[in-house]
Write a structure and sequence with these properties.
Structural class: mainly alpha
Distance between the termini: 35 Å
Shape: globular
Oligomer: single chain
Number of strands: 0
Strand content: under 5%
Radius of gyration: 18 Å
């Protein structure tokens, strides 16, 4: 039998719970993105582009981000949701200055979002997820 040199080998028993933390982090990120779209700041209402920022296009975008947040939170369709969020993070990472969105984050943030999404795409939803039986 071969042994792994690990300072905390008993923690490897809980490795199936690691995707849950990634799912909850992505859920929080997309929920905060969605709420930032629906939040009406006083400085945005008086701006000349306020009608565009609070328009139907942004409401649909906010609802889509809220649905992604719910999918990650409950673990339903995580690989599909992570594929969508990986594409979202990829576009925002490479075209950060050309894309106009209500929330502006750094490129490093979108890179981390991309890698967490790809990690969930490969590893799956974890143990506490709503899965469809095959």
């Amino acid at each position: 039998m071969f042994h792994i040199l690990n300072p905390f080998p008993d923690l490897l028993n809980y490795s199936l719970f690691a995707p849950i933390f990634l799912r909850l982090a992505l859920s929080y990120v997309f929920f905060s993105f969605a709420t930032s779209i629906f939040k009406k700041n006083p400085e945005n209402i008086n701006s000349p582009t306020a009608s565009e920022e609070i328009g139907v296009r942004w409401k649909i975008w906010g609802i889509a981000e809220f649905v992604l947040a719910l999918a990650f939170f409950f673990g339903f369709g995580v690989q599909i949701a992570s594929m969508i969020s990986a594409f979202y993070a990829f576009v925002l990472f490479f075209f950060h200055t050309q894309v106009t969105i209500p929330q502006k984050e750094t490129r490093l943030f979108y890179l981390l979002l991309l890698f967490v999404s790809l990690s969930l795409l490969v590893s799956g939803a974890g143990v506490l997820a709503i899965d469809w039986p095959l």
